[in-house]
Amino acid sequence: MLQLSNLEVAYDESTVIRDVSLSVQPGKVVCLLGRNGVGKSTIMKTIIGLLQVKRGSIQLEGEDVTKKSPTYRARRGIGYVPQGRDIFPFLTVHENLLLGLEACDTKEQKIDESLYAYFPILKEMKNRRGGDLSGGQQQQLALARALVANPKFLLLDEPTEGVQPNIVYDIQKVIMDVKKQSKDQAILLVEQSIDFAKQVGDYFYVVDKGRIAYEGDSLIEAEIKQYLSV
After folding, report:
1. The ABC transporter domain covers which part of the protein (predicted)?
2. Which of 47, 65, 130, 161 could form a disulfide with 87 if both were Cys (CB 3.0 to 4.6 A apart)?
3. Per the domain annotation, does 169 fall within a domain?
């Protein structure tokens, strides 16, 4: 289980996240929703270790990783797909995927060919540079790069943003397949689309002004509309 307890995060002297507590259970998809700029991506960056915690703690399978490095957290099983993809544009698709394997704490680093069942276009384009792919293909590559290490906890920061509907459907299918095939893997998903979140999510948190304003196993639009752009 991934557990955040009373998390407080600041940029310089400006507090962005205040008293945030949430949990992500194995085999579940947890959705984090809210308007732009309320702190959702800050929470994700804090979990992976890119931002430091001012107060509170992050527990990963019972271990306190609050002060651990991003590399340590990745090797403990956290995969991260950032908003904006952040693929390496001058490396090939294959080389981008190999970098994803750096999170594996094993000597053998080999791409599981079954990964291409999710993303057949990446197999066709494995020798093409990442920067030459379309936006949707780059998003598929970012997701594949995180999945290649078989993470226990997958953090997805707005994976459907700016991609065409057919790619959105493919991403939805991947999320549902990961949940179906493994009772040990868990996903924390930042998403703007309520419809998409409802399709894939098991539990929901809504963030407003750096705090959890709503949580539950369903989204009641009458209760959340004040916190979302609906």
Report:
1. 2-230
2. 130
3. yes
